[in-house]
DNA sequence: ATTCCACATTAGAATTATTCTAAATTATTG
DNA sequence: CAATAATTTAGAATAATTCTAATGTGGAAT
């Protein structure tokens, strides 16, 4: 009784991205993009896999990795690298930046509109700017200047 | 005939950092910080280990990792994370940013003075900004706007 | 509907970067 | 020079991710 109504919006998104709307991709997309379960999220492959398993979705870790990379390639996700040996995937693909809480390893979005970056040199000949990442690393402790 | 004159400047740097100037730390520091061999460098543990071995320095990979982390903790190096699963160590610890060439995986410094970042929100209560990383990711191909 | 086939999924092995462990070595201090 | 504590080391262990080869599945064509 929940097999008959496909999540049409998600199906469309996947199709538009050239990805077959398979059972597992749909389930993962739902976890990632449906507002009630997610909204803006920063999630690792392991975490998403755990969520899927907890939600009675049968999907392998390999498929979670495959899907995350395919979604990223299709512009549905953005990969954020903050620490060596662990990748976060961000469901917010609009232009924005991040706070990173070093104690705890959590990420938080900083809207892109309010931040202005000036004085960057022009990229070398033959290259173009694919993306600019700004990561503000935070530690526990009050800032010193009063 | 090169054992008697210690690289006093490096010895001092290590001592000042609370690290014993051992044979291997000294050799690694030389590779990292001596202008002729290095200057501003972005290097991985594996690369540094290979250089050491090539230079007839007997040092284990574990010690290279240990030393890199100790140097980083002491403020002699800065760790730069650009891609999952690989850490670069930057011998330039002054305030600056990076170009990252996605095709090829190379890093290049962008001097900090010329870049201005405005409109960042104040960090949440109880935290302070440890560092701000700006990574401009470059792909091959000319920028589209003429 | 059934068949077919390219695309997807999977379990488990393999790989890669890094960290850990416990023993051997070495720098420093007395 | 001996004692002590820090350091180094080889190799095992871990962690995240990717690969592989076999099996399963979506959807177009019949």
From TrEMBL, chains A, B:
<keyword id="KW-0805">Transcription regulation</keyword>
<dbReference type="Pfam" id="PF01475">
    <property type="entry name" value="FUR"/>
</dbReference>
<dbReference type="GO" id="GO:1900376">
    <property type="term" value="P:regulation of secondary metabolite biosynthetic process"/>
</dbReference>
<keyword id="KW-0862">Zinc</keyword>
<dbReference type="GO" id="GO:0005737">
    <property type="term" value="C:cytoplasm"/>
</dbReference>
<dbReference type="InterPro" id="IPR036388">
    <property type="entry name" value="WH-like_DNA-bd_sf"/>
</dbReference>
<dbReference type="GO" id="GO:0045892">
    <property type="term" value="P:negative regulation of DNA-templated transcription"/>
</dbReference>
<keyword id="KW-0479">Metal-binding</keyword>
<dbReference type="GO" id="GO:0000976">
    <property type="term" value="F:transcription cis-regulatory region binding"/>
</dbReference>
<keyword id="KW-0678">Repressor</keyword>
<dbReference type="InterPro" id="IPR002481">
    <property type="entry name" value="FUR"/>
</dbReference>
<protein>
    <recommendedName>
        <fullName>Ferric uptake regulation protein</fullName>
    </recommendedName>
</protein>
<keyword id="KW-0963">Cytoplasm</keyword>
<comment type="subunit">
    <text>Homodimer.</text>
</comment>
<keyword id="KW-0238">DNA-binding</keyword>
<dbReference type="InterPro" id="IPR036390">
    <property type="entry name" value="WH_DNA-bd_sf"/>
</dbReference>
<keyword id="KW-0408">Iron</keyword>
<keyword id="KW-0804">Transcription</keyword>
<dbReference type="GO" id="GO:0008270">
    <property type="term" value="F:zinc ion binding"/>
</dbReference>
<comment type="similarity">
    <text>Belongs to the Fur family.</text>
</comment>
<dbReference type="GO" id="GO:0003700">
    <property type="term" value="F:DNA-binding transcription factor activity"/>
</dbReference>
């Amino acid at each position: 009784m929940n097999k008959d109504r496909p999540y049409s919006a998600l199906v469309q998104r996947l199709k538009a991205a050239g990805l077959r709307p398979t059972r597992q991709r749909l389930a993962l997309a739902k976890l990632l993009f449906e507002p009630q379960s997610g909204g803006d999220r920063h999630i690792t492959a392991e975490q998403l896999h755990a969520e899927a398993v907890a939600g009675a979705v049968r999907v392998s870790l390999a498929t979670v990795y495959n899907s995350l990379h395919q979604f990223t390639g299709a512009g549905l996700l953005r990969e954020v690298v903050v620490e060596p040996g662990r990748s976060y995937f961000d469901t917010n693909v609009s232009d924005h930046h991040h706070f990173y809480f070093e104690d705890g390893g959590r990420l938080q979005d900083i809207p892109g509109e309010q931040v202005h970056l000036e004085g960057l040199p022009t990229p070398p000949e033959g290259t173009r700017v694919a993306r600019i990442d700004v990561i503000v690393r935070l530690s526990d402790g009050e800032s010193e200047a009063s």
